[in-house]
Amino acid sequence: MRLFEVLLIVLNLFLLAPLAFGRLRSKRSAALSVAVSLTAISLHLALEGYRFQMWPAYVISAVLTLHTVVRFRRGSSSGQSPVKRSRLRRTGIAAFLLLYSLLAVLPPFALPVPSFDKPTGPYSVGTVQYHWIDHERKETYKNVPGNNRALNIQIWYPADHTEGYPAAPYAADLPVIAEALGRQYGIPKQLFSYFNLAKTYAYQDPPVSKREAAYPVVVFSHGFPGGRYTSTFQTVELASHGYIVVAVEHTLSSFTTVFPRGHYIGLSPNQPKPSDISAWDDIIDKVWVKDIRFVLDRLEDLNRRDDKKLLTGALNLSRIGMLGHSFGGANAAQALLLDQRVKAAINMDGTFFGKGDLSGGLPRPFLLMSSDLPPQPAGATAEPTDSQLAAAGLTREIFEKQLRQIPLRKQEALRNGGKELIIPHATHLSFCDFYLWFPMMVWANGQTEDPYRTHRTINKATLAFFEEHLRQR
């Protein structure tokens, strides 16, 4: 919860005191409490912004202010006259206090504005968005404008002078994204409407820092589904340490992609079954890796000439790394295998999908970050029954093949000097922003981790890896 939200709720409790204890305040204290409450709500709305979770506090604040004024006019001005109360009425007041606590405190506490750690690097952070069309590839899904593969790209970069530049929103086009998520997943759009109140510590389109002639590049690939913004905790941190971070939003595999004229498209309805490994391999091989190779081509064009006059000459394209979460982590490994421009890669807790041959290991530095899975209880078995397999569309033969294949791919990926780092207390969703969106997810999953501490561990490991392999420090 934010400063003025807390202050408003505490002041409401102060206004409730006469109800609870049966004493009127003096004229001065009553007027002061009302004035401070109104000032707090005004500052909250002006500086922090409205969000729907605070509606109970807004309403209660208005009711209590009105009640204080009316009661003050009817009561004694000395402030010393006790008001006798029956036990029933005192019980009612106690119930009201409990209701206030539930209505005013629980919603903003359970659904806070996402909050990010301040970046630890020496640079300020700028960000800019691009929309790139691959005229060499046709899109298979009919609802994409123009029929060519089109990608939204967001780039974070080191900056020095951000004064006078607007703070960057967490997610551009958030109202459209929230509307689309509501339609596709049945999630109330209000659950996302306040995300742009988050302070990301990035600014929109300031000049690139000139402290270095050019900066190493890290390309980011999100999970399935995800978005270019869903690991902001990591992209902003890397940029603050002098990296240009290029986040690719994989159209039809993201929550929602909003095109420049407001047209949007969500997750493709034609998704493979979770058990169809070959089909997921095809998505990596035929779509996602090609997205990355196209983006690398466009970065060369951007470095020669940026029409937005920001990044021309700023990218050190001899030092490109790749970073991905979940399905994007698999994409990072395959990009490292298949494109020599990628000099190092990190897979964050991703299964090794893709058809590239991993039998000889990966050819350049590779790090697998893994979640901290609890040990399996004694006597427990993960072996499904034949009926469970049939329900998943699998035969026993296919299941046994997959059971061998997935661990083997991991072993092969680490064969040529690759490293694995288990992040203490981390779960699969610890490698993105989701636990900052809905902290209750941590408790609902029976976890005790502190998402901020886990993010710091992930960021420290990520930075150390790229410092060693892209900057040779």
UniProtKB/TrEMBL annotation:
Where would you find the membrane-spanning parts of this chain? 6-22, 29-47, 53-72, 93-111
Q: Quote one Gene Ontology molecular function term.
A: 1-alkyl-2-acetylglycerophosphocholine esterase activity
Gene3D superfamilies to which the protein is assigned, alphabetical: alpha/beta hydrolase
Q: What organism does this protein naturally occur in?
A: Paenibacillus durus
Residues of the signal peptide:
none
Task: For this UniProt record, give its keywords in alphabetical order, as a comma-separated list.
Answer: Hydrolase, Lipid degradation, Lipid metabolism, Membrane, Transmembrane, Transmembrane helix
Q: Which SUPFAM superfamilies match?
A: alpha/beta-Hydrolases
Pfam families, per the entry: PAF-AH_p_II
The name on file for this protein is Acetylhydrolase
A biological process term (GO) from this entry: lipid catabolic process
